[in-house]
Amino acid sequence: MKKLSFLFLFVFLITANQKLQSQNLENEFKLSSSEFQILSFDKNWNWIFENGTPTSIDNNELIKIENILNDIVKEHNKKERLVLNEHNKKFPNNFKKQTGYEISLENKMRQYVPILNEKGEKEIWINFFCDKPRNDEWKTFPRQVKDGGNCYFSVKINLTQNTFKELIINDYS
Q: Bridge partners of 124?
């Protein structure tokens, strides 16, 4: 009986260790430096934040942001599927496969603008876009694009509170 208990405990510990190792691999920041840029906040960028003090973000914070972003995308796309299902029920002759407002983090360039707000909380505005810019202006100034649909979107994350706001997805014209 002791040997069986010991064997069970041994197998349990090996399995738990494998799960922890796989979680650690998922908690790495996987973007290459050519896919993102951290911009220092300029007070003239009042369309991003009205007020704020420029700050930095480290690798651990980038990992935390990525985890929050994954949750945002899952929840947002879940809501979009509900909208799509309702549309397809209401208009069966106008069946759609997607709403056009589903979002993905895959193959997106990113700009991060971190600040400390009036309360001393760290907030980050993240700007996403599909196409790699032709020049290096995106490395110093927030990229602004009209239209373009779900290829272009942005979100603000309060890293201190683990919350987000202002998920904005570009429209189509």
A: 114, 157
